[in-house]
Structures are given as C-alpha cells and as structure tokens.
Amino acid sequence: MDRVRRLQNGSDVRGVAVEGEKGRTVDLTTPVAEAIAESFGEWVIKKLEEEKGRPVEDVKISLGRDPRISGASLSVGIFAGLARAGCMVFDMGLATTPACFMSTLLLPFNYDASIMMTASHLPYTRNGLKFFTKKGGLTSPEVEEICDIAARKYANRQVKVSTLLTPPRKVNFMSAYSNHLRNIIKERVNHPVHYDTPLLGFQIIVNAGNGSGGFFTWDVLDKLGADTFGSINLQPDGMFPNHIPNPEDKVAMALTRAAVLENSADLGIVFDTNVDRSGVVDKEGNPINGDKLIALMSAIVLREHPDSTIVTDARTSMALTKFITERGGHHCLYRVGYRNVIDKGVELNKAGINAHLMMETSGHGALKENYFLDDGAYMVVRIIIEMVRMKLEGSDEGIGSLIKDLEEPLESAELRMDILSEPRYAKAKAVEVIETFKNYIKEGKLGGWELDSCGDCWVSDGCLVDATDSPTVIDAHMYRAKVSDERHGEYGWVHIRQSIHNPNIAVNMQSTIYM
C-alpha cells in the first residue's frame, strides 16, 4: 500500500514506469495505474452526486498523454480503471496538459473530468498523472485521498492484470483546442488588413523538445500565416533524444537561440514536454525565462490591468519586485510550487484583490482570463498578440524591449543537499533541518537576517504561512530570509525548501552586491 501512496507528488502522481534508471525500480505499473484511475473515476462520480443531490449516469472522462514510451501500456490500465468505475472513456491520444483541462469546458466535448499522462521534463523512464475537473486541477489533499483509496484497491486485488472492459472512444480534441487558440489571436489582434492571417510577415521558431508541442507550429502558427521555417524537434519522440524538454534547460534555450539568429526570426518558443510551461527567445537571441519571463508577462498584463497583483513563488529577485511596482502593480511572494502560486491567486481574487497573473520561475504561468490554468501555449499566445500589436503601432523593437530595464542580481546560486536517510524518513528529516534554519534566524543568531513576509497578500513567516482565517495546508516546508546590513540596506535573500520530487533540500540565494 505504501508503494502506491508514495507515488503522490503534490497534486500529481509520478513514478518510474520503465526500467533503465540506476537505483530506481519500476513502481508505476499498468495495474497500479488501473487502481488509481478507478479510484479517480469513483471520486468524480461521488463529487458529482454530492453536487447534484442525486445519482449520476454517463460520467465522461478523457485521457491525453505525452509521447513517453510507457504511455501505451499505462493507457490500457487507465482505460480499464475508468471503465471499472462506471465511466465513459474518451481517448484524446497525443495531447497537452492544458488541452486536457479545456476538454472539460469546450463544446461539444465538455467532459466531466480528464487525466493527462505525463511526467513533464523528467527522464523517459518516468511517467505520471494529472487530474482535472471542470473546476480545475485537483489539490494535493484530493490526490492524496485518491491514492489512499487506490492503495487499498491494489493491495486487495487478487489478480493484478488489467482487462479493458469497454474500448475507449477516440476523439480529435487537439484540433478543437488549436482552433480555440487561433480564434483568440485573431480576435485580440483584430488585424485591419488580414484578419484571418494576422501573423503574415512574422517568422516564429518553435522548439517542441520532441514532446507534445509540435501542434502549435502546424495547427496554430502556420494557419495564421506565420513562417515557421527553422523550427526544431517538432516530431514526438518519447526518448527525448535532443535535449530535456524544459524551458529552463540551457541546451534547449541555446538551440532555440541559434535557430532564431540563423533564420533572423522574430521570436523563438520553447515548450516543455506537456506544454504547461514555455519560454521564449527574442529576435536579438536573448533567452527569456525565469524572472525575465515573469517580467515580460507582467509588463503585458499591467498594461491592461495597471493595479493588478502579480503572484510568484518566493525565489524571484528583488529587481522583479521593483519592475512590477514601477508599473503600478503589486508583487505577492508565496510558496514554491505552481499549484500553490495559482491557488494563492484564486484566493486573492475571491477576497476582492485583483490578481491577473500567477507565475512560477519554472515557467508555469496562469492568467485569470484563462480559467487560472497554467498553459504554456496560452502564455505564448499572449506574447505573440503583444508582438503583433507593437508592430502595428510602428515599433520594430520586438518583445525583448518590454523588459530592457529589468535589473539582474550580481550573484545567484542554487544548491541541492541530499538527505542521508532511508526514503521513508527523508521528508521528516528535511522538515527538521528547515525548521532549525527558521528558528536560527528567528532567534537572531545571524545579524541582518530576517524572515520575509508579504503583508499585501497576508503571507508571513518566510513567505510560507497564510495569515488568514482559513490558511492553506502546507505541502512542503520552505522559508525565505531577506539579508541586509547598515551599509547596503537590504541586498539579498536566501530561500530553503524541501523538495517534493526527490529526497533533498534546495537552497536558492541572490545578492545585488559582490560578497
């Protein structure tokens, strides 16, 4: 039972699905996937019955997946589990994470729930599951509940071999999703000469990393008139032979930069495997990810909503805070974890504080206007719309000019410290170490160090604790400390956190002066 429960990874499920990773055994098998899918199906039915106050029939759930080599075999278990739960099953085939959520909203599909099979940028040996209802992605406690039920099912099942009870119905949802994105670009640009092809005259390079993002080239950009010659790694390949499909990866950004400069393109786009994250390269070849991508999106959002709060994780720079406030915005620093950042934005909006952008330094970004969904393709759509708008207004500077006054820290570093203990004790050990760090600062043992806070969004105690009547459950321990002295004032910060992916502690630090 613990084997299944340990697959929970925050609001996702992740595990090793294929042999080939040194020191790791396969734990996400087809029977395990079946038990989890069955539990999810039952959970969805239960929630719908609670909402409607009556029994429900014909509950529809879709499944999409990235091109990982374990996808086909795990799909058999997921289809079987959903059918065993009494659900109607729809096979989206190769898809993206945001598309799976949108399949619960866009007509005529509007499924009751959806599952995306992906492990994001992790190695080909891994795979995982993300869960959605019409309300959005499931929370960590909800996934924990589903994994707990699945663990009992798996332990009590006599025969751990999946049998597909009812064949799923194949659907071409990605075509509808692409059309949805195209319509947004056409409507928002509203080109005065060629409405249906607003990207005529623009060359845009796409690097899909051999993941699921190739569709954006031929089914979105090409159909809007863009020249996409020079795009790379568009064909899906579950072994990811060219580089890690990750907008934070230096190789991915370097290859995209080279393609942009070689082709004199207007923009380069980098998607992660399942397209819930993205990064870009401007026409000068400058990579825009991390803080720079948050600044770019902040500049776009604050032009339309100048008093908006921008929610980010607490690993962003002091310069980003300055960039946001100089444009009339407010910066809320919060817990690391894209789900934490997005949920904080949802909470603020419910409390009457307009938060139009929630974004993590990893490239996960969500907009209020887009269902609070972290969608790498939609993020790029907004950047493309801004690029065209600037051109129509007579500017040839390109989107990089929007962040030309963003300062960079003089020093920046990230450290990973392995936790030397048995895997089952690693989490507790990490919490012990991190709490010791917090207490050391609170007791004043380091002069000039102070736990950070963000009063505007009711966040205190090192950007971890919600100072509200109903604080959000803490899924991983982490603290940010600001550092200052009499000569320089506040000049840097240190952030220490427990990894939910691996048995280690991550330490990030930045300084605006050389030490």
TrEMBL record:
Its EC number is 5.4.2.2. Residues 7-153, 177-285, 289-389 form the Alpha-D-phosphohexomutase alpha/beta/alpha domain. It comes from Heracleum sosnowskyi. It catalyses: alpha-D-glucose 1-phosphate = alpha-D-glucose 6-phosphate; alpha-D-glucose 1,6-bisphosphate + L-seryl-[protein] = O-phospho-L-seryl-[protein] + alpha-D-glucose 6-phosphate; O-phospho-L-seryl-[protein] + alpha-D-glucose 1-phosphate = alpha-D-glucose 1,6-bisphosphate + L-seryl-[protein]. It comes from the Eukaryota. PANTHER family: PHOSPHOGLUCOMUTASE (ALPHA-D-GLUCOSE-1,6-BISPHOSPHATE-DEPENDENT) (PTHR42946:SF2), PHOSPHOHEXOSE MUTASE (PTHR42946). GO terms for biological process: glucose metabolic process. Keywords: Carbohydrate metabolism, Glucose metabolism, Phosphoprotein. It is an enzyme of class 5 (isomerase). This is phosphoglucomutase (alpha-D-glucose-1,6-bisphosphate-dependent). Its cofactor is Mg(2+). The keyword Cell cycle does not apply. Monomer. GO terms for cellular component: chloroplast stroma. Belongs to the phosphohexose mutase family. Transmembrane segments: none annotated. Coiled coil: none annotated. GO terms for molecular function: phosphoglucomutase activity; phosphomannomutase activity.
